[in-house]
Amino acid sequence: MKRARSPNYPYIDLETAIGRATSMSDFTGKHEVGIEDLYKEAWGFTGVTGSSKKTLAALKYFGLASQPHGSSKARLTDLALRIIHGLPGSVEQREAIQAAFLSPKIYKYCWEKWSDDQVAPAAMKSHLILEKGFNESTVSGFIKDYRSSLDFAGMIAEDDEDEADLAEDLVGQLVQWSSQGVLQFETPRRVTGLTPDGKYAYIEGSQSGVLISELEVVEGSHDNSVPPPNPEFRELLSNSDLKPRPAHKEEVFSLGSGQVTLQFPDEMSPNEFEDLTDWFVLIHRKIGRGVSLDEVPRLARQE
Questions:
Q1: Contacts of 222 (CB under 8 A, 6+ apart)
Q2: Which of 134, 156, 206, 210 is the most exposed place for a label (fewest CB within 10 A)?
Q3: Cβ contact 22:84 at 8 Å
């Protein structure tokens, strides 16, 4: 009887694969890169080895890299770039990570069969050997990587009721935001509100939502002056299309008579930038009406 072939599966877990994709991005950006340069320069392998080839194969399984058949070059996919350059903790980045998790066929199979993650590892091992043809010497390593990737991708949501209670308590608290092990705030900031689904928090000084699971409360920081939303307001939010708004930047110019403050979106289209430029000219003229022309430098008076 011919032995069933073990299914293809990623050589490394998802978090490690994204780390490799990030190193690839640092080395080549969005451009193609030769395989040998990728292995040696970006990833630190000695060259074309079993481990280096299986690492690239893992990125392809997760949908993070592409390599045309027979080509000696590879490049990152749009999915990888959305993960690497996405706003840490954002809905978009989280969805991209989960899409990568479900890209390997065997990962998707395991997720659809054991999505609640309540099955014992021994039961998984038995099923994968008998039904999917896994080798006994490799199946335990696969299960370990699969479960690690499952946790990293946040596929299993926490209890909704407990999460809602935690979210309610956050309003008015000073928090620190940690994403992928890196603190994002120089100093703690206060939570001013929540998104309708209770998964994201609005932070003082920012118009972008932050994933609640990545926030840590600074002890003894609650501000009773910021009450939680009342039921009517919560219902209004749930019926709206409220989403985290784009981030803004702020520039302050100090004058002897006071400060001039300008707030503007972090990103804008070419047409919006042109409109803003025209508006600057109009504001310049309006401000100039309150200034004596004798006191305005010659250059500033030129149209």
A1: 172, 173
A2: 156
A3: yes
Provide the 3-class DSSP secondary structure of residue 229. Answer: coil
**Tokens read off for 264:** 């503007």
Antiparallel, parallel or unpaired: β 215-217 and 209-211:
unpaired
Answering whether pTM is above 0.70, one says no
Question: Looking at residue 220, what is its pLDDT?
Answer: 55
Q: Which amino acid is at 162?
A: D
Those residues whose C-beta lies under 8 Å from the C-beta of residue 160, and which sit 6 or more positions away, are none
Q: In which element (H, E) is residue 65 found?
A: strand 65-66
Burial class (CB in 10 A: 0-12, 13-18, 19+), 201: buried
Residues 6 or more apart whose CB falls under 8 angstroms from that of 121 comprise 140, 143, 147
Q: What is the mean pLDDT of residues 198-209?
A: 75
Residue 96's nearest CA partner among 207, 9, 18, 210 is 18
User: How far is the C-alpha of 44 from the C-alpha of 38, rounded, in Å?
Assistant: 8
Name residue, tokens 């946790």. 151
**Which range (64-78, 183-197, 219-233) has the least confidence?**
219-233
Residue entry with tokens 């000695």? 46
The answer to whether 63 and 79 are in contact (CB under 8 A) is yes
The distance of Cα 272 from the centroid of its chain, to the nearest Å, equals 26
CA neighbours closer than 13 Å in the CB half-sphere of residue 179: 15
SS3 247: coil
90 closest CA partner among 209, 194, 207: 209
